[in-house]
User: What shape does this take?
Amino acid sequence: MVAALLAGCAKPPEMQPVLGTSAVVDAMSTGSINPMATGLRTAYQPMPAMPSVLFGKLAGRTLTVSESGPLGLRPGEIILTFDDGPRAGPTESILETLDQFGVKATFLMLGSSAERYPALAREVAERGHTVGTHTYDHVDLSTLSNHEAIAEIYAGQQAVAAALAPDNLAPSRFFRFPYLAQNGVIRTSAVESRFIVLDVDIDSKDYYTETPQQVLERTLARLDEQGSGVVLFHDIHLRTAAMLPEFLKALRERGYQVVTLRSSGGGVFDGPVITADASSAGSEI
Ligand SMILES: [Zn+2]
Assistant: This one.
């Protein structure tokens, strides 16, 4: 038994920093933050910067998936996802907060947003977050024909790929349906085209006109009910950016771990293209 326990503890989660003692983390995580430790922050930052190493306990394992379907999250594991961005302002703030807490998220970008803010799209990827796509212009795909829907999915994927390309970066295979609106035919076509459909377990409903505190409390309550899951946020809302530090602090205090999500294999264009319109089959992105 002792050996098994030791074996279980001997392999820390990926990305977890090496610390002298865990007591240091506990002491710091429950104490007040020393603003004198920050030389780079302005008074407008929602929380002073601390070395992300102090927040390492929140970062969980890296989960690499190859197909749509259940992710096999363990109790206490959550995946953070942010849809509809990037957008100047909230996305930048969210990136700062994620860095401060030392965790990685998945950003399902709109092609139109990536075209508008290509440098910000690259910034998301450069900071080690996973970039997926969410159509070009947030169309309800369930209202379209199969070919139209797949063309819209590809248009989004291509626009995000174009934004990332200058840095030799590429989007992952993750795709999320706008409004979570889908039908079996379109979902099957997307899967056959090598997209990995990323579903949602916990909807923060951060698109409601509410206070950050209301979003925070609802999301934590849903998470505590379920105990794990994929959480949906949107990095286009200032209320989301505003609540995120408190949300991550609460996750850490409650013992959750934020799992880093990655897709395996090559890009979506390595597989068959299930659309009448796509012409990029075989492209190396
Ligand atoms: Zn959306």
Observations:
- The beta strands are 59-65, 77-83, 106-109, 130-133, 174-175, 196-197, 202-203, 229-234, 257-263.
